Every structure is written in structure tokens, then in C-alpha cells.
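for the writeup, i need someone to sanity check this before i put it in the appendix. the sequnce is what the collaborator sent (i think, or maybe the updated version? ugh). structure was predicted straight from it, no edits. if anything looks off just tell me and ill rerun, i have time this weekend
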Amino acid sequence: MADNEPKFVEIYRARNLAQAHALRIALEEAGVRVQIEGELLQGAVGELPLGWVTAPRILVQQSQVATAREIVGRLDIPQNAGANDEDQEEVTRCLACGRTLAEGEPKCPSCGWSYQGV
């Protein structure tokens, strides 16, 4: 690796790919460069044990760690990381901040993100 290439460090392990990409979107919208590591491990269900080892890792440039952690800390990320998605009631969540959206609600009341691009 060349000396001028940025070093990426882990700031968060997501519960699943949906959460990882929601975090990626929020971080990128704030100007933070993001990589998700371990996306392919999510497709190896049955071959690898699910959990901490196979969870998608959110990586950011070392110079942006403080900013990224502040953004992740402000997001309302559900703290039920041990629960399986199948065990939870199916709800629509904002992809940017993770808040639950009322059925048919086009825009997140918390952060303003919209599925409809408005």
C-alpha cells in the first residue's frame, strides 16, 4: 500500500446489510468516505456462523473517524442487535437514520430522508 493512500479503520459493525447501507448513506451524505467490509459473508448463511465475526464492518478514513463516530452516535440505531430480523415485526424504516416510518409515510419526520427522492 502506498504511503499516500488513506488508511481505513473500523468504526462500527452493523447488524445486517440493510443497516450497513443505511449507515453508509448517512455518512456519505455528510461527506465521509465509507467502505463496507464483509458484505459477501452475509450470503454464506449456513456455511459460517452468524454474529460478530460475519457482521458487515463500516470502515472510514482514519482522518474522518471522529466525524463518523459522531454521526453514527446521533443516529437512532435499534439496540436489539441480538434479535433476528425474522423475530421482529415487519416495519418500514428510514434508510438514513433507522427511524420507524408510519405506513405510507413518504418522508422521514426525523431526518427528512425520502424513499421517493423528494
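The longest strand covers residues 8-13. Strands lie at 8-13, 34-37, 57-61, 92-93, 100-101.
thx in advance!!
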